[in-house]
Design goal:
Elements (H helix, E strand, L loop, with lengths): L1 E3 L6 E3 L8 E3 L6 E3 L9 E2 L12 E2 L7 H5 L8 H4 L5 E3 L5 E2 L4 H22 L10 E3 L100 H4 L8 E5 L2 E4 L5 E5 L4 E4 L10 E4 L5 E4 L4 H8 L3 E3 L2 E2 L7 E5 L2 E5 L8 E4 L8 E4 L7 H4 L8 E4 L3 E6 L8 E6 L4 E3 L12 E6 L6 E4 L10 E3 L12 E2 L15 H4 L3 E2 L15 H12 L4 E2 L9 H13 L7 E5 L8 H19 L3 E6 L13 H17 L3 E6 L18 H8 L12
Parallel strand pairs: 10-12, 11-13, 12-14, 13-15, 14-16, 27-28, 27-34, 28-29, 30-31, 32-33, 33-34
Antiparallel strand pairs: 1-2, 3-4, 4-5, 6-8, 7-9, 15-19, 16-17, 18-19, 20-21, 20-22, 22-25, 23-24, 23-26
């Protein structure tokens, strides 16, 4: 007789004498009972029943039906549930003869049960063993996630989640004036800096930067969080492992792009990718990033470096290895945000050649190495050209101590290639220093009161502090013999050095231009980018004499530092800005160098004219900083606080005044501008 399998509808046949006996479907393995003659369908066999098969054989009752084995969700033997792909399952079929006595059958069943138990113990790691043939259970592959196509024509990307407001960060600090006259006789220690040498200061991020628009964005549809696996790895680099292969949407970027955020992506940055993300909270929600090219950079325009290092860096990899700060990746200040650069400390930032046009024998150079006659070896006095990678600064000099003809190069916006060194340096270089660059904005503060003014840099008439991820510290050679310049510049995190403070005044550095010239080689020996002695606004004659003598002696001075405290009749805001501009323009026209105003205010307690009211001071400061930010030859400025309460930016309680709030809320542009090609 014929009847269908109730599981798969396979047509089966059996003798009428087998009615009521059990039979296994050869197609699906389903265990069923042969129906009596006249019935058209079979019934499933009762669970655990030792079913009799056709002929004189019995089917092993311990062998599970295939469909039950596949449907056993959560079963310990299911490799997809246990997380152990490829786990094997027994594949034996034991057949028992129908002939023999009842005792024989009972004994065989007992042996069968015992054998199954032994096999199970071996399968689960038990000590008893039995030789059993195993076959790998096929793995069930998850449904593939469609790949995002490579981007060629970018367009804006929208954020899928609203940004979360930042928390305000504040620090304790003093409010007394660290005027240079008070620290002339101090030893070489931190002066009113607000933090120790190992601290990591974080300015108040209350106001966010304005987004730049380097290029169109990229078109990427966000994946809902419930459709994507979270790929945020553990923060411990030792346990994060290799670059994850989760079911995030993969995307490879290899050109200049801008977007608000990249959500739920497995991002690969290759080639010369320059990716700008402008989200104020997490610009990479649910995403991971792998840098596979040293020229592929990630710009997070509204996230400070310290936050990137602590919260976002654990989701980044470099060539498949976990990103580790200062091990295989740089996290660098970039205006009010951050740039992430996949470079290790031994990255060859500069390569010099003994032939012109970057030809001949190459020699790669790294940061913070003192290249002199011994370390240059055969390249001493043989260099004719070089390449400097973007993100680095280099100083080369004629003499081994950094003196003689010297030149400073900054590759801020692009690589620099000098195919032929200038006269006096070609085949005559015996001194090279290379430093990592940071993209600092114009606005800073004189003294260690940076905490609530949202500035990018400060100085304190000393060399006692260090830079942090978020804040650049600029040291100064305050006087002729103090402080000393035998410093660990890598630890300082400094690439600039200011010259003597108000040498034209008897209560400050008190030096003649000739004395300053005599002491200048000590500053040149650092290889840092050098600022001139900062004269008072009444000492321009001293400054011009010093610069003429420095140029005649081929002594390098990279920028001019000055102070300004002139008052404006009537405290008219526009007149104050115009007068300030005229003062700076004269200096620039005379010296042909960019300018840093390292102390300034709208008048002072020693100037003539009426003191400004609170509103007048606020409006004057606002107009003056607008002028400073728009003037291309002004590289940096740092307001001075302690010139009467009416001019303060920080009051006695440590809070910003109305003028201080204007100063705090102003987003200043990048300080340095790389010369056009």
């Amino acid at each position: 007789m014929k009847f269908p399998c109730p599981q798969c509808s396979q047509r089966l046949s059996a003798e009428e004498s087998m009615a009521g006996q059990s039979l296994e479907c050869p197609r699906c393995g389903h265990l069923l009972t042969v129906p009596p003659s006249g019935e058209s369908s079979a019934k499933p066999a009762e669970p655990g029943e030792a079913s009799k098969a056709a002929g004189d054989k019995w089917v092993n009752p311990l062998k599970p039906a295939k469909e039950k084995q596949r449907a056993a969700k959560g079963s310990p033997s299911s490799p997809k549930r246990s997380g152990m792909p490829g786990r094997k399952t027994p594949a034996t079929t034991i057949v028992i003869s129908e002939s023999g006595s009842g005792w024989t059958k009972l004994l065989l069943v007992a042996v069968l049960v015992l054998g199954a138990g032994i096999a199970y113990r071996k399968y689960t790691g038990g000590s008893l063993q039995r030789v059993v043939q195993y076959q790998a259970e096929p793995e069930v592959s998850p449904s593939p996630t469609p790949e995002a196509p490579r981007i060629s024509e970018p367009s804006p990307l929208t954020v899928t989640e609203p940004p979360v407001p930042k928390e305000n960060i504040s620090s304790a600090f003093g409010t007394s004036s660290p005027r240079p006259a008070e620290i002339q006789s101090k030893p070489e220690s931190s002066a009113a800096s607000g933090f120790g040498s190992n601290a990591t200061p974080t300015p108040d991020p209350e106001a966010t930067s304005s987004a730049s628009t380097p290029s169109p964005g990229i078109q990427l549809e966000s994946i809902p969080m419930d459709q994507a696996t979270s790929a945020t790895p553990k923060k411990d680099p030792e346990t994060r492992g290799a670059f994850p292969t989760s079911n995030l949407m993969p995307v490879t970027l290899n050109q200049r792009q801008q977007s608000t955020a990249l959500s739920n992506r497995k991002v690969t940055l290759s080639g010369s990718a320059q990716v700008y993300l402008t989200a104020e909270d997490d610009p990479l929600p649910g995403s991971v990033v792998n840098f596979v090219s040293p020229d592929a950079w990630l710009f997070l325009e509204k996230i400070q470096p310290s936050k990137v290092a602590s919260d976002i860096l654990p989701r980044m990899w470099v060539n498949g290895d976990p990103a580790e700060l200062d091990k295989n990746i740089r996290v660098v200040q970039y205006e009010q945000g951050t740039v992430v650069i996949p470079h290790a400390p031994d990255y060859p930032a500069m390569t010099v050649f003994n032939g012109k046009g970057a030809n001949g024998t190459p020699m790669p150079l790294t940061c913070f190495t003192k290249y002199d006659d011994a370390s240059l070896g055969s390249m001493k006095g043989a260099i004719s050209s070089f390449k400097l990678k973007r993100g680095y600064m280099a100083t080369i000099a004629q003499n081994e101590n950094g003196t003689g003809i010297s030149k400073n190069y900054v590759a801020q916006d692009r690589d620099i290639e000098v195919s032929s060194l200038p006269a006096g340096l070609d085949k005559n270089v015996r001194f090279i220093r290379v430093f990592p660059w940071r993209w600092t904005s114009k606005k800073g503060i004189a003294g260690g009161i940076w905490q609530k003014l949202n500035v990018d840099w400060f100085y304190d008439w000393n060399i006692g502090a260090n830079s942090s991820l978020d804040l650049e510290y600029v040291p100064i050679k305050q006087k002729r013999h103090w402080p000393g310049l035998n410093q660990d510049w890598k630890r300082k995190g400094s690439v600039h050095l200011l010259g003597y403070n108000e040498p034209d005044r008897p209560d400050q550095a008190k030096m003649t231009p000739d004395e300053a010239i005599a002491g200048w080689p000590e500053l040149l020996g650092t290889g840092l980018r050098l600022g001139s002695p900062a004269v008072s606004d009444g000492g321009l004659g001293w400054l011009y004499e010093f610069m003429e003598k420095a140029d005649d002696a081929k002594l390098r001075v990279d920028f001019i530092a000055v102070h300004y405290y002139r008052a404006t009749p009537g405290n008219n805001p526009r007149a104050a800005a115009t007068q300030f501009y005229g003062f700076l323009k004269e200096i620039h026209d005379r010296t042909k160098r960019p300018i840093w105003i390292t102390e300034w205010n709208n008048g002072a307690n020693w100037t003539d004219g009426e003191d400004p009211s609170v509103s007048e001071q606020k409006e004057c400061i606002e107009e003056m900083i607008k002028m400073l930010d728009k003037t291309d030859f002004v590289e940096r400025y740092a307001i001075y606080n302690w010139v009467e309460e009416c001019r303060n930016v920080i009051d006695k309680s440590g809070q910003p005044t109305p003028a201080g709030k204007v100063y705090r809320d102003k987003k200043s542009p990048l300080a340095y501008e790389q010369a056009k090609r």
